Amino acid sequence: MSAATDYLEQVRADIAKRDPNQTEFLEAIDNFFKTIVPVLEKHPEYIKTNLLGRITEPERGIQFRVPWVNDNGDVQVNRGFRVQFNGAIGPYKGGLRFHPTVNLSIVKFLGFEQVFKNSLTGLPIGGGKGGSDFNPKGKSDAEVMRFCQSFMTELQRHIGPDLDVPAGDIGVGGREIGFLYGQYRRLKGYQAGVLTGKGLSFGGSLARTEATGFGLLYYTEALLAADNDDLNGKKIKVSGAGNVAIYAIQKATELGATVLTASDSNGFVYDPNGIDYKVVQQIKEVERGRISDYAKRVETAEYHEGSVWDFDVDYDIALPCATQNEITGERAERLAKNGAKVVASGANMPSTPEAVASYKKHNILLGPAKAANAGGVAVSALEMSQNSERLGWTFEEVDNRLKKIMQNIFAESKAAADEYDLGKDYLAGANIAGFNKVADAMMAQGII
Ligand SMILES: NC(=O)C1=CN([C@@H]2O[C@H](COP(=O)(O)OP(=O)(O)OC[C@H]3O[C@@H](n4cnc5c(N)ncnc54)[C@H](O)[C@@H]3O)[C@@H](O)[C@H]2O)C=CC1
Ligand SMILES: O=C(O)CCC(=O)C(=O)O
């Protein structure tokens, strides 16, 4: 045991003592701590100043009541959250998730990951995350609007273009951001830079909708290129059928791969000829329907209930784009048997610790979420830049910048892995590269 491992164990024990029930948050901490031991060995000053004790405690957290009235006139109450995790390198930045499972543990795990992801983008943004246990599924537009208006009535006190800039995540897309922005503007006046993912007619950026999915494929391309390989002819399993999945399917197909699957929380579709992202987009984004409808429209597709990761088919690359912990240890073993060689994470923390161990055992390359899915928040930061200069860039301009940012994230993660002799452990590389910048900023700013 080194001083570094002793220290990390102590910090971990203190966190678990304070918040024993925050299982997702503790999982994110464990994934992170496993990889930064060599950095602490090189920088004893981080131990001396209890940097890890500080970096794992959010700077601020807000929990609030969100009352609203449904279409039947019944009064509903949901819980709202915003965790401002770390502002050392810029205003807090990160999405809002509306899903019945949202609680403080989930918001904290997402906020913690966001700190290092945002640092990796190379842009001046701190990390935050928020959301509510409100479920937009099955609600009318009017109900979603009333909920968003009530949510923003409280949140507006805590956000601002130089303070904290929320965006979308699961259950929060263009419709929700529009309602949230409208209520903010009503209460505080025009401030385009207070939210990102806005509509194009009121300050949104071209390519933000596509950014996380496109960025995931640019990252995957860079990871394959390091092994003299590319996406052409590859077979890919995608999970999810939302914002990230749809544009991941589009870009993967454009780059010559065949995407075999897409899924939602009920089941998945399999099409050996390749999933058509436009059909998924129509069903999920326009009609707000179920992925099972895909098989009713595309003859070559089959619909199956259950998880896409429990379905056996030969493929090369897994792109989990649904939610946390969707790939368990058992599913990772199955993924290895099916011949997959790469897992690039569109979703946040989609692999359990057992799954990550299984990838290592089978020499499967892992593109970790904080690197592979950073394209969304990167383009959000570009949206903030455009809002500040009151200009809008072309799609090509934003897309080119996104591609460079993703290539750079891979290069920096690889360089950090090389520096510490970690081989192709790009999870450790991303954690270290993301951590370095936040650590430098915190050390320079005193005990904060
Ligand atoms: N939207 C963004 O810009 C970014 C999103 N992410 C992450 O990507 C993932 C997907 O987010 P979005 O596509 O934005 O959300 P979305 O709401 O557009 O789509 C989510 C998809 O995942 C499925 N899903 C949700 N919970 C599930 C569950 N328990 N089991 C199986 N499927 C489930 C839904 O049916 C839907 O198809 C999340 O982990 C999110 O945190 C990461 C970076 C940026
Ligand atoms: O665009 C953003 O600010 C946030 C995106 C996000 O929530 C994420 O990266 O997980």
Instruction: Please tell me the total number of domains.
Output: 3
Number of helices: 18
**How do the strands of the widest beta sheet line up side by side?**
9-8-7-6-10-11-12
- The CATH class of the largest domain is Alpha Beta
Q: What is the radius of gyration? A: 21 Å
Beginning-to-end CA distance, first to last residue: 29 Å
CATH architecture of the largest domain: 3-Layer(aba) Sandwich
Beta-strand segment tally? 12
SSE class: alpha/beta
**Which molecules other than protein and nucleic acid are bound?**
1,4-dihydronicotinamide adenine dinucleotide, 2-oxoglutaric acid
Largest sheet: 7 strands, mixed
Assign the CATH superfamily of the largest domain: NAD(P)-binding Rossmann-like Domain
CATH topology type of the largest domain? Rossmann fold
Task: Summarize the helix and strand pattern as letters.
Answer: HHHHHEEEHEHEHHEHEEHHEEHEHEHHHH
Helix content: 40-55%
Approximately what portion of the residues adopt beta-strand conformation? 15-25%
**Mean model confidence by pLDDT:** 98
| Contiguous uncertain segments of 5+ residues | none
Q: Summed up, what is this model?
A:
The chain has 448 residues and is α/β, with parallel strands linked by helices.
Tell me what you see in this structure:
This protein has helices at 3-18, 23-33, 37-42, 44-48, 51-55, 104-120, 141-155, 174-188, 208-225, 243-254, 277-286, 292-297, 329-337, 353-361, 369-372, 375-389, 395-419, 426-444; strands spanning 60-69, 75-86, 92-98, 126-132, 164-167, 235-239, 258-263, 267-270, 302-305, 317-320, 342-344, 365-367. The model has no long low-confidence stretch (mean pLDDT 98). Helix 13 packs parallel to helix 14. It has a seven-stranded mixed beta sheet with strand order 9-8-7-6-10-11-12, sandwiched between helices. Strands 1-2-4-3-5 form a five-stranded mixed beta sheet, with helices on both faces. The radius of gyration is 21 Å and the shape is globular. It is an alpha/beta fold and 448 residues long. The protein has three domains: 3-55, no CATH class; 60-192, Leucine Dehydrogenase, chain A, domain 1 (Rossmann fold, 3-Layer(aba) Sandwich); 211-363, 3-Layer(aba) Sandwich (Rossmann fold). Bound molecules: 1,4-dihydronicotinamide adenine dinucleotide and 2-oxoglutaric acid. Residues 168-171, 173, 212, 240-245, 264-265, 321-323, 346-348, 373, 376 line the site of 1,4-dihydronicotinamide adenine dinucleotide. 1,4-dihydronicotinamide adenine dinucleotide (NAI) binds next to helix 10. Keywords: NAD, Nucleotide-binding, Oxidoreductase. The active site is at residue 129. Substrate binds at residues 93, 114, 117, 168, 380. Residues 205-446 form the Glutamate/phenylalanine/leucine/valine/L-tryptophan dehydrogenase C-terminal domain.
